[in-house]
């Protein structure tokens, strides 16, 4: 099944009397269980595309289907539930909560959904991610690479269908970035998640099943 299907998606901003297109007539299918890289220059529309996929933003034209459901036809409440349950987000700047320890950080999306964490599953993720010993550390006590691993663990905690990662290795050195990429790859291969990742790095993109390149809001290949 298609995880995501975009048809004729455009996003326009009114800039005075001019219209600025962040996305233009994008047609894109992301199949379930695949790892896709999104590349393009600064300002080409990568984040806008990811935000559309994550139901964080709505197109001004066109249709976005997630698992066959039309996001444009859903109420904000349903969209919020979908973001909480089906989509894991990973950002360049980790976005962990400083006042919570590692364990609580990864449980936040579960608490927000008023569910009980599946301890055994989360312990397993932490073990695979090499974080078991640091469960009670606070974000400020962790390295950048460790913080990004926590962010991926948090994204996986809800067992999402889709993981959206916006330059997840952007703040990391080469080796740590490769480790983080490896964990995203593992999430896809071993856990069957669909991953879409924005990256500026050709080498990282080469590890993906597919590379989508955007130029000036259009998909060029
Ligand atoms: N809220 C907004 N209002 C007006 N223009 C916007 C808004 N958000 C984005 N844009 C414009 O849309 C275009 C695409 O932005 P987007 O953030 O998607 O680019 P990007 O490829 O992710 O860039 P970067 O690599 O620098 O993060 C840019 O020209 C940007 O200035």
Overview of this structure, please?
The chain is α/β, with parallel strands linked by helices. The protein has one domain (32-58, 78-219): Rossmann fold (3-Layer(aba) Sandwich). Helix content is 33%, strand content 29%. It is built from seven helices and ten strands. It has helices spanning 46-53, 76-85, 102-112, 119-128, 144-157, 174-189, 202-206, and strands at 2-15, 18-31, 35-39, 61-66, 69-70, 87-90, 162-166, 194-198, 210-215, 218-219. The chain has a six-stranded mixed beta sheet, sandwiched between helices. Strands 2-1-4-5 form a four-stranded antiparallel beta sheet. Helix 3 (102-112) runs parallel beside helix 5 (144-157), helix 4 packs antiparallel against helix 5 (144-157) and helix 5 (144-157) runs parallel beside helix 6. It is globular. It starts with a strand and ends with a strand. The model has no long low-confidence stretch (mean pLDDT 93). Residues 13, 20, 22, 40, 42-48 line the site of adenosine-5'-triphosphate. Residues 4-220 form the ABC transporter domain. This is ABC transporter ATP-binding protein. Keywords: ATP-binding, Nucleotide-binding, Transport. One of its GO terms (molecular function) is ATP binding. InterPro entries: AAA+_ATPase (IPR003593), ABC_transporter-like_ATP-bd (IPR003439), ABC_transporter-like_CS (IPR017871), ABC_transpr_LolD-like (IPR015854), MacB-like_ATP-bd (IPR017911), P-loop_NTPase (IPR027417).
